[in-house]
Design goal:
CATH class of the largest domain: Mainly Alpha
GO molecular function: efflux transmembrane transporter activity
CATH superfamily of the largest domain: Outer membrane efflux proteins (OEP)
Helix content: 55-70%
CATH architecture of the largest domain: Up-down Bundle
Family: Belongs to the outer membrane factor (OMF) (TC 1.B.17) family.
Membrane topology: Lipid-anchor
Shape: elongated
Distance between the termini: 67 Å
Largest sheet: 4 strands, antiparallel
Number of helices: 11
Pfam family, one: OEP
Number of domains: 2
Strand content: 5-15%
CATH topology of the largest domain: Outer membrane efflux proteins (OEP)
Organism: Zemynaea arenosa
Radius of gyration: 38 Å
Low-confidence stretches: 1-19
Mean pLDDT: 88
Order of helices and strands: HHHHHEEHHHHEEHH
């Protein structure tokens, strides 16, 4: 301890010699600063076709259309605003971003030396029953790694890419939330139309039962006709109870998405029949690489895996670290900070792995396997996005015609029912013909509402899978 104290004191009288190791280390670090063992990153080719199977109209890209322009319903717009402010999944995504940002800052800080204030004191028994005392105070840098082979830089690059991936995942949550709120809102509109239809059907069947009951009391019809009329009424009541339950479930789902109880002062909205969502152009499949945040997130994970290969390769090379301190040292506590007590220590260390029983080789193999998995995940994400867009485009091309045809069916069934009702009242048709026409009309009207709901929800899905909702 005495010799160390004397060395620190002598160092203040030989500054020209002591600067040389620091200058040499700085020059060596500068010369090797550009060394990076990570493979050169190249974006994998997209494993999809050059065009979609279905054609689409020309127009403004979905990713460029703000959500409040695409969804014109004032009530839906307010629900989306509330969801963006209160939804818990969105809050979790925001917290994940902050966590990833902090982790990136922690990793990046390892590239720079950590300077600490150090105060120490020791008393050691010496020869002839003496006690040697040493006290020191100053600044210290402990085990600062010179990143000559890019290990720390690659770890920082990987952390940065993972942070960017988390940020892109949050964007995915946002556009998914907007689409989910829109679909849940459309479901509640469909529920209202179905309930209105069922109530009107129930009223019609109640009136029909009343007439059949009168005819039965007069002996005109049999008990079979009466029981059939009653069965139709109860069937309508079953459908009413089911639809009321479905409306409650859809309302609860919408409330969960919004993140709070729905306020009573929401602006008025439109009905499902009045709602219209414009057709969207698909563009080229290659556009998905830039407009889909889930694809961008998968690519950032691939960038991180590529950087981790560089960090694993650097483990095969020497790891040089520096430990240094500068301050005051004295054999007496009262002598600290006095003239002549200042000095410094400098202790470089180089470690080269020789026998590690395959640890570094296994680490490199694991990094390469993780990179292969990231490539496959990236390609699968692209293929999944291509299928989602293709499915939604197929829906855009066919749902409008399906709705038109289903409404035509409902109109024909309405005419058929009116004629059957007239013929039955005049005794020209049997009650069985009347019941069949009534059931067919109800089914056709329900199917028309469902077809319109599916058409609108498909447009919401197409807007989402084309990257709409970020603006």
């Amino acid at each position: 301890m005495v010799s160390r104290l004397n060395m620190m004191k002598r160092s203040t009288r030989s500054t020209s010699f002591n600067v040389a190791p620091l200058a040499l280390a700085a020059a060596l670090a500068a010369a090797l600063a550009g060394c990076n063992l990570a493979p050169t990153y190249q974006r994998p080719a997209a494993p999809i076709a050059a065009a979609y199977p279905e054609s689409s109209p020309a127009g403004e890209a979905a990713s460029s259309i703000e959500w409040n322009r695409y969804f014109a319903d004032a009530r839906l717009q307010e629900l989306i605003r509330l969801a963006l402010a209160n939804n818990r999944d969105l809050r979790i995504a925001a917290a994940n971003i902050e966590q990833a940002r902090a982790q990136f800052r922690i990793t990046r800080a390892s590239e720079l030396p950590t300077v600490s204030a150090a105060v120490s004191g020791s008393r050691v028994p010496g020869a002839n029953d003496t006690i040697t005392s040493t006290y020191s105070a100053g600044l210290a840098v402990s085990a600062f790694e010179l990143d000559l082979f890019g290990r720390l830089r690659n770890l920082t690059a990987a952390a940065q890419a993972q942070f960017l991936a988390v940020d892109e995942n949050a964007r995915t949550v946002r556009i998914s939330l907007i689409a989910s709120v829109a679909n849940a809102y459309l479901a509640t509109l469909a529920d209202e139309e179905q309930l209105d239809l069922i109530r009107r059907t129930l009223a019609t069947r109640d009136e029909s039962l009343r007439l059949v009951q009168l005819k039965f009391d007069q002996g005109v019809v049999s008990k079979v006709d009466l029981e059939q009329a009653r069965s139709l009424v109860e069937t309508a009541r079953v459908a009413l109870a089911q639809q009321q339950r479905q409306r409650a479930n859809d309302f609860n789902a919408l409330t969960l998405l919004v993140g709070q109880p729905l306020p009573d002062n929401l602006p008025p909205g439109t009905t499902l029949a009045q709602t219209n969502l414009a057709d969207l152009p698909a563009g080229l499949p290659s556009d998905l690489l830039t407009v889909r945040p889930d694809i961008r997130a998968a690519e950032q994970q691939l960038v991180a895996a590529n950087a981790n290969i560089g960090a694993a390769r650097a483990n095969f090379f020497p790891r040089i670290s520096l430990t240094a301190s500068a301050g005051s040292a004295s054999s007496e506590l009262s002598g600290l900070f006095k003239s002549g007590s200042w000095g410094w220590t400098f202790a470089p260390q180089a470690i080269l792995p020789i026998f590690d029983y395959g640890r570094n080789a296994a680490g490199l193999a694991a990094a390469r396997a993780a990179n292969d998995a990231a490539v496959a995940q990236y390609e699968r994400t692209i293929q999944g996005a291509f299928r989602e867009v293709s499915d939604a485009l197929a829906g855009q091309a066919t749902y409008a015609e399906q709705l038109r045809a289903q409404r035509a069916v409902a109109a024909s069934e309405q005419s058929r029912f009116d004629l059957a009702d007239l013929r039955y009242r005049n005794g020209a048709a049997s009650y069985l013909d009347y019941l069949d026409a009534q059931r067919s009309l109800f089914s056709a009207q329900q199917a028309a509402i469902q077809a319109n709901q599916l058409r609108l929800q498909n447009q919401v899905t197409l807007y989402r899978v084309l990257g709409g909702g970020l603006k």
